[in-house]
Amino acid sequence: MAETVQVPNYAYGLGLLAFPLGLFVYSKVFPSHAKKINRKFTAWMCSKMMPRVHAKCIPQKKALFQSFDLLYDSKPLEVLEIGVGPGSNLDFLPAGCNLSCLEPNLENQPYVEQALKDCPDVHFSRFVKGFAEDMREFDDNTFDAVILTFTLCSVRHLQKALSEIKRVLKSGGLFFFMEHVAAPRNSGHRRVQETLDWVWPVVVDGCHLARESWSFVEQTGFTSVKLEHFRIKMLPFLSYGLYGYGVK
Ligand SMILES: C[S@@+](CC[C@H](N)C(=O)[O-])C[C@H]1O[C@@H](n2cnc3c(N)ncnc32)[C@H](O)[C@@H]1O
Questions:
Q1: Do 184 and 238 fall into the same domain?
Q2: I need a surface site. Which of 51, 77, 132, 150 has the fewest CB within 10 A?
Q3: In angstroms, what is the span from residue 7 Cα to ligand 1's centroid?
């Protein structure tokens, strides 16, 4: 009988650090091929890492997505997930909803298609290549819910992304978010985050450690915002979590 080989967590960490260095050298010699490899590697890495992160946030995800109940009037629900990655939230979508996905890295699509096979009650609408900051493919007031998890740390222009999210939501629609965020100001963990932030985004696909994402959400002009801070059982500088929703 074949033995299952368990890849230890530190092996993913080492891969994460060693790969960009090799890629940097390679990218100077074969730029377009290197970009393609990078996209494939990033999607694969995301498909390995993100389920582990989400597994540590199950109670918070249950509490968060319970608020889909607030949308009882609209059936079937139109849902957009931005930066969908490998499709870590599909299990939590309400039965019968129509799902659109927005993702800059199309190498994630096969992972989403695979995950959708386990969610037959979710109707897949379309997978669009694009960034949260510019969602011109979607009309105003299109979605009942927009979901974005562990992605605000990576978007380049938080304010633009959030105002685009508000634009594509219907009136009364919900913006669900879950993120790792900045530690309290002047804490030791915050100093570690700010120091690592010089190199972390280069190594981890644009991810920033010390973002106070909650203040951007609060300033977007949602009718109401509910948010909770929590701790995620991860490395201390990654352990500051935030989840909640905004109502348009
Ligand atoms: C850390 S992964 C999280 C994936 C997924 N949301 C999850 O929780 O498992 C971040 C994702 O955001 C995407 N992303 C990065 N910048 C983005 C942007 N500006 N707009 C939309 N998605 C973006 C990446 O391609 C990646 O799939």
A1: yes
A2: 51
A3: 24
Q: Is residue 2 part of a domain?
A: no
Top mutation candidate among 151, 159, 178 for ligand 1, by most atoms within 8 Å of CB? 151
In a domain, 1, yes or no: no
For strand 169-180 and strand 143-149, is the pairing parallel, antiparallel, or unpaired?
A: parallel
* CA 136 to centroid of ligand 1, rounded, Å: 18
Same domain, 23 and 134: no
| C-alpha of 218 from chain center | 19
| Type of residue at 183 | A
8-17, 128-137, 156-165, 180-189: least confidently modelled range? 8-17
This prediction has a pTM of: 0.88
At 92-138, the pLDDT tens digits run 999 999 999 999 999 999 999 999 999 999 999 999 999 999 999 99
- Based on the fold, state whether residues 149 and 233 are members of the same structural domain: yes
Concatenated DSSP letters of 145-212: EEEEES-TTT-S-HHHHHHHHHHHEEEEEEEEEEEE-PPPTTSHHHHHHHHHTTTHHHHTTT--SS--
Report the b/e string of 154-192 with b at 16+ CB within 10 A. bbeebeebbebbbebbbeebbbbbbbbbbbeeeeebbeb
Question: What is the number of structural domains in the chain?
Answer: 2
4 vs 105, higher pLDDT:
105
Structural domain span for residue 240: 58-247
Tell me: do 128 and 19 sit in the same domain: no
pLDDT value at residue 23: 64
Q: How far is the CA of 205 from the centre of ligand 1 (A)?
A: 9
